[in-house]
Amino acid sequence: xxxxxxxxxxxxxxxxxxxxxxxxxxxxxxxxxxxxxxxxxxxxxxxxxxxxxxxxxxxxxxxxxxxxxxxxxxxxxxxxxxxxxxxxxxxxxxxxxxxxxxxxxxxxxxxxxxxxxxxxxxxxxxxxxxxxxxxxxxxxxxxxxxxxxxxxxxxxxxxxxxxxxxxxxxxxxxxxxxxxxxxxxxxxxxxxxxxxxxxxxxxxxxxxxxxxxxxxxxxxxxxxxxxxxxxxxxxxxxxxxxx
Amino acid sequence: xxxxxxxxxxxxxxxxxxxxxxxxxxxxxxxxxxxxxxxxxxxxxxxxxxxxxxxxxxxxxxxxxxxxxxxxxxxxxxxxxxxxxxxxxxxxxxxxxxxxxxxxxxxxxxxxxxxxxxxxxxxxxxxxxxxxxxxxxxxxxxxxxxxxxxxxxxxxxxxxxxxxxxxxxxxxxxxxxxxxxxxxxxxxxxxxxxxxxxxxxxxxxxxxxxxxxxxxxxxxxxxxxxxxxxxxxxxxxxxxxxxxxxxxxxxxxxxxxxxxxxxxxxxxxxxxxxxxxxxxxxx
Lengths: 243, 283
Known about the structure:
The complex is a heterodimer. By secondary structure, chain A is α/β, with parallel strands linked by helices. Chain A folds into 2 domains: 2-183, Ribosomal Protein S5, domain 2; 194-239, no CATH class. Chain A contains 10 helices and 10 strands. In chain A, helix 2 packs across helix 3 and helix 4 packs across helix 5. The radius of gyration of chain A is 25 Å and the shape is elongated. Chain B is an alpha/beta fold. Chain B folds into 2 domains: 3-173, Rossmann fold; 181-281, no CATH class. Chain B has 14 helices and 8 strands. In chain B, a hairpin with a 2-residue loop joins strand 5 and strand 6. In chain B, helix 11 packs parallel to helix 13. The longest helix of chain B has 18 residues, at 181-198. The relative contact order of chain B is 0.10. The interface between A and B is large, with 61 and 94 residues. Strand 10 of chain A pairs parallel with strand 7 (116-121) of chain B.
């Protein structure tokens, strides 16, 4: 049976919507991934096969063909593990709802079925929102960075079986969202301070101008002059090493 | 070091800026688990053994380099002449455009790299050329070779050049409280807010991003300032690029004072930040 799951490829900061088309049929047992996958995508075979098995689902020996469309865009990385696994499970009727077609999925699988964090979750969410996607399933560890985006439902899952249960409407996953203000509260103070620098008013002024306008600046001076005027406070701290 | 303390006075990020920075760090995989989104400007200080590729970005599938990771923040290069010259020249285009385009067999990618370039260096191999305290022991040839590692075009792109002179003993002993970073930051924030409001329509955030057209629009000089700039331009033999950069710095100094017009004092201070290449590079 044929099934389709949506995912996304990143080229730099630009995102392309990818359809993962999976066909599982009777025939000589084989497994092919087409649509310009690179080695890391092809390797997904072994991860997916083992993850599905270790999540408690049975994958009989069948002819599996996966196409990553459009086939003209190069695909790399491990983010296609989850959509491919979901596509296969849908094809063999483990997932029986229609829904996955409207949800974007990204995530790397580990052999025991857990979802591992991926790179680029935030740009994917931003691009997905631009393309009108409403829901996105990703590894739990990536939810933090992505939840700053409003207007799109970000669902974090720990493992493959959680995703399957969610798609079969057995459980619900609540979407999380944090605001910019909440992020700002977590800010830490920078450990170094200009009050520790004695004198050097002209340099401080120049640096202030540079910071205010974002200008490039070059400091020229002998090494000891540039480095040795930290206050006594700092040298006391240095003298007593901590464990 | 002063340069290491620059992050403590950098203006606060706006949400849009923070999002752009986090996007790049998300792709590079340098986000830490405890920070969902980057809320302070990045400060990148790569060692001088860095290669051109890791500075600009690259790899089989191009990943952002240090200049892109420093987007909207600071790229600090300590001991500038120690860097490979080929590596430094990589900075030329990005410093001007705020973008870097990397072409590899797997595709051509463009990453933003709108960073503030901060560098520090000695005036000669021994470190005492031009010093009043100690005599320099380097031969003229050694000094020329050392300074020659910084090319003219790169130097031309640096708006503010400042000489760090020794602190007098009295000042070190002085227990007078120095200004804290918090106080300086308040002024910087205020100046940056003025810029943000002014450039709302132009899609830029600071004076350093002004294009030649915008310089003409926003950095108008009165007659007196114009004549000062003309004298300086002819006397110092400035380039067209330097001219634009002086105007941008003057605009910032005026913003720091909350002045709408660029005054005489502002333009003279800005010119003052560009005279070191005469002293050390003799060009």
